[in-house]
Amino acid sequence: xxxxxxxxxxxxxxLRVVDGGQELRGRLASLGLLPGTELxxxxxxxxxxxxxxxxxxxxxIGRGMASRMEVE
Amino acid sequence: xxGTLDKTITVAVAGNPNSGKTTIFNSLTGAHQHVxxxxxVTIEWKEGTVTRGDWSLKLFDLPGTYSLTAFxxxxxxxxxxxxxxxxxxxxxxxxxxxLERNLFLTTELLEIGLPVVVVLNMADVAxxxxxxxxxxxxxxxxxxxxxxxVGNRGRGMxxxxxxxxxxxIHGVSLPGPVDLCRKSSPAPQFLTRxxxxxxKVQVDYGELVEPYLARICALLPAEDASRWRAVKLxxxxxxxxxxxxxxxxxxxxxxxxxxxxxxxxDQTPDTILAAKRYETIHALCDGTLSQVKENGPTISDRVDRxxxxxxxxxxxxxxxxxxxxxxxxxxxxxxxxxxxRGFTALGGFIDGFWPAGSASPLRSLLVDGIxxxxxxxxxxxxxxxxxxxxIAILEGTGYMARAAFVMDRFMSKVGLHGKSFIPLxxxxxxxxxxxxxxxTLESRRDRLITIMVLPLMSCGARLxxxxxxxxxxxxxxxxxxxxxxxxxxxxxxxxxxxRLLRATLFxxxxxxxxxxxxxxxxxxxxxxxxxxxxxxxxxxxxxxxxILGAAIIMWFLTFYPKPPADYVVPAGFDKTTIAADxxxxxxxxxxxxxxxxxxxxxxxxxGRALEKVLKxxxxxxxxxxxxxxxxxxxxxxxxxxGIVFAVGQADETxxxxxxxxxxxxxxxxxxxxMLFTLISTPCIATFAITRQExxxxxxxxxxxxxxxxxxxxxxxxxxxxxxxxxLGGA
Lengths: 72, 730
Known about the structure:
The structure holds two protein chains of two kinds. Chain A is α+β, with helices and mostly antiparallel strands. Chain A is built from two helices and six strands, in the order E-E-H-E-E-E-H-E.
């Protein structure tokens, strides 16, 4: 397992753990990001927010938040 | 035909952001809509009507949400409406090209137990992406009608209206959500073991969860019992818990929820429930949704490679902002000038009915108060209309989300959202439309912080002040740098202020930055114009009344009371123009009369009273009076200075006034005056718009007091710092 921030552009990963409160988990879940969901990193420039593809949509995620998402 | 329209159907339009919900709403209602704010929150509220035969459909556009949790104002507003107003029908707008994610909200709506009509919008986009949806199967599985539409072309609207009316009148064989909570109802049918066409769909929460749900349902009073409520209570949703009146029941429900949370320590309740919801959706989509052809990177992805590029993203953003800015102010300002000139001409025409120099209060009220006031409101209109058009284009095409992405890197450092950048930029033109532009920010916290610091972006109306003061006190080669320092001071204070507000008043976790990146779309001209017009109308109606009222009050304050004949202008008044012992009645020169009148007016008195407070920053009563007089609009400061220095009509190029200023104040004081006008309380229009947009007087007052205090502190530090450095005082 590693934080989402370590995943390179173009790589796929499966979300395992969201280290955050109910609000963060709820927001991610309503966008389709639940533990067990497959996602693809579309953009990770090393700084600034992230873009991932999940369930057919593109989602922007702040870097701080991405560091709290464990994937494999 | 009055009397026939009492057959009203209340319809709520729900859906995810970017699902085309607003387009559907606009297509259905056309121009028959009304925009407002939800009371107490800064969320736009739209309602509209459609008439079909004897029936009148009253549509409410709910804020776009991904779910009905309690984490944002939008979600709370949407669910309060659904639970308390109990609309006859809920139209659930679903983005057909993104079915699974959109059905998340659908399952929640079904659990609430209201009649739902699902709209599969953007059916064309889905087809282009190689997706095929079996609409009939989906409808049978969901147990509710499903209508396909292409919202931006108006396709499917008649079918939708017909279906909504049918559902409202005849009802649908509603699936079991509500029944599940009623003891007498038959055993629920879960989707995973659903027989097609049975018209009963339920999220199957599984053997672990269902017993807990059943226990909670049994506790709730029958009229409140819905599966949705039970699920929320199990998720420990604080708002839903609060709504239970009986403290005994509340305690018992909490106990059950805690027991449930303890049952599986590895997963949180909300995760378990959301996962079950997606499982159901997955089963629902299996066979309903198929990918008939594979598709590579979409056009959106290819455009994003440039607009979201780590290097090119910023210049592209700046170019687009420049274009929006030029459109707003470049196209708007000539029209503004025209309106301004029109009102001046009208004032002059009305003025002509009185003899020259007449002191008639009616003339003054008409010309200076009403025409001046109405003109002051309307003069902003071209800017506002164009600005909203620019924003509608940025939002409608989908670029706004990219702009937020690009700017977030910088803005997050000061605790602001990437989208805050656009209002801040507009603030250099005019604070009023800039505050209205904060509507694009989803979180109330981000909005409030942005609104609070916005007046620090030096608006166009302050430029005349600098244009007057800088040449008065500084040599030509310093003009540019001083102006630059003033602007940068404002920017720095805004950013520091935002950071401080985030750390104090708006403390707490940052709103997590998650945002869907909608695919690029070509907005229709109709929807752009409609969005622009509804917002401009809102400005005219609401702000117009408040700003006009305020302008008339300010007119009164600067003109009344009139001095008696034996009034002697106060000591310290310029002795070069009016002798110290001259009575008001003896004055002949209209310029002298005007300045004596101002010194006697409420504004003048307030200005004199302010001298005590302003002395420590190096200002005298003249500056105080001019500051009070400039409340309706900052640029009035120049004209007010002209009056208090009794130099007659003055504008920012007046050399006489500059000489007077130089005689009285040091460059250091001059600089502090500019800083003070930059930072202190913004104009009345800003006050009115802040009140309107934040929905409370409290924030408008806080903004004024906070900024004025800040202005005083900054001016005090600069003044005394300058004195210590030997830069000279008054």
